[in-house]
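Forum > Structural Biology > Help requests

Title: Can anyone predict the 3D structure of Nramp family divalent metal transporter?

Hi all, first post here. I have the sequence for Nramp family divalent metal transporter but no way to get a structure on my laptop. I'd be grateful if someone could post the structure tokens.
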Amino acid sequence: MKKFGPALLVTAAFIGPGTVTTATLAGGSYGYALVWALVFSAIATFVLQEMASRLGLVTGKGLAEAIRGQFSGISQLLVIGLVVSAIGIGNAAYQAGNLTGAALGLSAISKIELTIWVWILAAVSTGLLISGKYKVIEIALIALVFLMSLVFVITMIMAGPDLSALMTGLVSFSVPSGSTLMIIALVGTTVVPYNLFLHASIVAKQTKSDNLQQSVFDNRIDTGLSVGLGSLITLAILSCAATAFFATQTQVETSNIAHQLTPLLGNYANFFFASGLFAAGLTSAITAPLAAAYAVSGAMNWPTQLDNKRFKAIWLTVMIAGVVFASLGIKPLAAILFAQATNGLLLPVIAVFLIVALNNRALMGEYKNGIFSNTLGGAIVVFVSALGLYKLISLFF
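Reply #1:
Sure, ran it for you. Structure tokens for Nramp family divalent metal transporter below:
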């Protein structure tokens, strides 16, 4: 466990309701056909999170502060506007998915309506953020999320995934009819833009080691192990859904989403799945507004202390926007899928700024990006941008 560090919190943040529902819908609707997209997402997550955390480790700055420092004059104002709008819009959508997912779990085991649970969960999250004691509860919730993850992995093994179909899905790079939005959502639920800001800020606040080279190496190992663990969990969820829904031609619905855990948990599947969604949703509902506050405050050159009024105003705005979006009456699974797709569409904007910062020798010194990192990062930006552009064009033609 010594090699695990800050990146484990990032993993816990992206294994939220969005990951559970999106991977379930992907497996239930397309079987193993989109496994390649999952693997791409894992590689993209590692590449970008490693860049962001390396920046925080080397410079002692968050991603937003570093991006701001790369520009001046009108260009700086434009960049600040893009960062603020991208993270603001993205986190508002993501927050709606967090609250909806957690409420979905609670409404499944109670007679209280989903919208009421959304407001209750928002109030709890707001109270925890204001008190400053949310970290203690977050640790307990992360433990519940990983317990749920363990169950998915065991269930996948018990269900006996179709290894031949899985390998075919890994190398076929197929895009089934109507799956473009799902692919973008799979990317968006794994490579979460706000996690880039969160990871850089967490690492930047750590006590610096005398051996920076070793710290950078350890950070890379931490990121690889943590992202690998999160990707395994996502693959387990997709596999369970492929076996429970796609193989039996059963439509994934809000009422039967826990059905995939029946082989292991039997009659307790619904309760356990609901508890896991609640834990995952509340953890992410705390993290997303915080990350937005760090990003926007850094971009605006404002203080990033928890007790700062501007800092509080930012995360509270994201919280309120999430409640409003989650209360509009949109179908729960559709709302969560939309949130993940929004993240996927916003990712190229943040990734470009990150790569620009990592290529600044004055900022990064000998730890600036090399040709290999730039090639991978550029390929990720091009691929995700092409997906988003294709989806937008398909809406009109």
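The chain has a mean pLDDT of 84. The chain has one domain: 7-396.
Shout if anything looks off.
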